[in-house]
Design a protein that fits this description.
The chain is an all-alpha fold. It has helices spanning 2-13, 16-43.
């Protein structure tokens, strides 16, 4: 399983476009979850 993950990672590294897409998706989902947290915090009045 670990080897499979490493192979996937290696394939991404050998394909710059894949890496860019992967990074962009990761950042997008991070940003989205941050916005959700902020919404939750502002809606829950502490």
């Amino acid at each position: 399983e670990m080897k499979h993950q490493l192979d996937l990672l290696h394939n991404k590294m050998s394909n710059p476009d894949e890496v860019k897409n992967y990074v962009r998706e990761s950042l997008t989902s991070l940003k989205k979850s941050r916005e959700e947290v902020n919404e939750y915090l502002s809606s829950a009045n502490f």
